[in-house]
Amino acid sequence: MATWLTTGRKIAGGFIGALVVVLVIGVVSFDEISRFSANSAQVSQTYKVLDRLAAIDGSVYEAESYQRGYLLTGNPRFLEMRKSVRAVANENLIILSNLVSDNPPQAGRVANLDSMIRQRVRYGDATVAMRDSGRIADMRGRVDAVELQRLTKSIRLQVSLMSGIELGFLDKRNALLEESNLRVRAVIALGSVFAILVVALAGLMIKSDLAERTRAEREMLEAREVAEKANRAKSNFLALMSHELRTPLNSVIGFANVLLKNKGGTLGEQDVSYMRRIQANGKHLLGLINDILDLSKIEAGRVEVNRQRVDLSQLIWETVAELEPRTEEKNLQMVTKIPPDLGHVITDPTRLKQVLINIIANAIKFTESGTVTVSVVVRGSNVPVSIDVIDTGRGIREDRREAIFAAFEQEDVATTREYGGTGLGLAISRALCERLGYRLEMETELGRGSTFRIVLTSAATAHAGSEQAALQYEGARARPEPIRAKGIGRFHIDTLRNSTVLVID
Questions:
Q1: 0.70 exceeded by the pTM?
Q2: What is the DSSP string of 412-456?
Q3: Which end of the chain has a smaller Cβ tally under 10 Å, C or N?
Q4: Chain-centre distance of CA 347, in angstroms?
């Protein structure tokens, strides 16, 4: 079966075919019914002509009888009845003339009949006048005259001739009427059978298509189930391999850090350079593995969310402080806008920080000059509504704005070559936001920068301070809000600069 002959086209073809058949039946039936109607009208007209001829013949006979009755009895009532019959005969002649007007031979016969009847009436009037004048002897002689008999016979012969001709017409027209009736029935019957065949054929084709589609859908569902099982197995495998993959890599990075200290002075300058490369590539590889394992955990449903009361301001300052060195390397300006007395939120600080790191790191990576701004938008009494990360970078093409949120996707191949990366950061960030009950949205303009917004739709605030103007902090010199540590009290992070820190693991 040709691929262009789809199920929809088959349905349309069956419908159109049946419609064409119905239209043909309608046209042919209309033509035959028109003929049938015309034949019926002619048959009806013939019957009317026969009726009028019979009525005229009867009128002539009655008029002659009434005339004889008057001549024999002199009763004037017979004259009145004769006059009435003559009026009826004249009316029938007029109607008969109209009925046969489309048939010249018959119309001529009607004219002859009319002439003979008028002559017969004049002859009768003359005998009546003789009776009235008292010339009964002359009148009696005239009553039996040959002329009177001849006229009466001629009239009846003319009526009989015309009736015979009309009866011949009637037989022919009845035959045509029957033929039209049979043709109409045949057209309707054959057309109905053909239409049923067309619809049945289309139905069989559609049924075959539906069976094929059902089979294809079943196979597709089975294939999808197999693919989903394989994907779940892959995700479970990677999620379970987290420790086994990270542990040896952390050892490689850790021993590289130890060797880089070169406490014994046994490593030359080139050896130290090699160790730095081992350390940098190990960290890069660890980042890639972490991204892949995070995505696998998300797909396997193994991401756990540990919600707690979080100081959002402190969390953002810590994240910005970690990424600030990257902006210094690229000579970018980091701007942080956080309102004072910002309300707390109930969230997973680790996951939220991971999302912030991904978004801010991306903003720094794709911004060559200008600023990267982290801003908290509030409403009411400093209730946090969203966290916006705004950059002045290259922006994103409109046709790739949704694709960048897919796993292993970047804006284009040139972006991957220039900036590197796996294209997992935004996919993981969006998935984590959804897991936290947030939304990750984006606004961008090509060549002017982008804004990635974490909408805290389910952020539960523990308290809210008064509405004040947001404080702006720029660069590494920005002073964060004071931090409260157990047993120490409130202090500024700047007081720890250039200090020695002991980290016990």
A1: no
A2: -HHHHHHH---S-HHHHHHHHHHHHT-EEEEEEETTTEEEEEEE-
A3: C
A4: 43
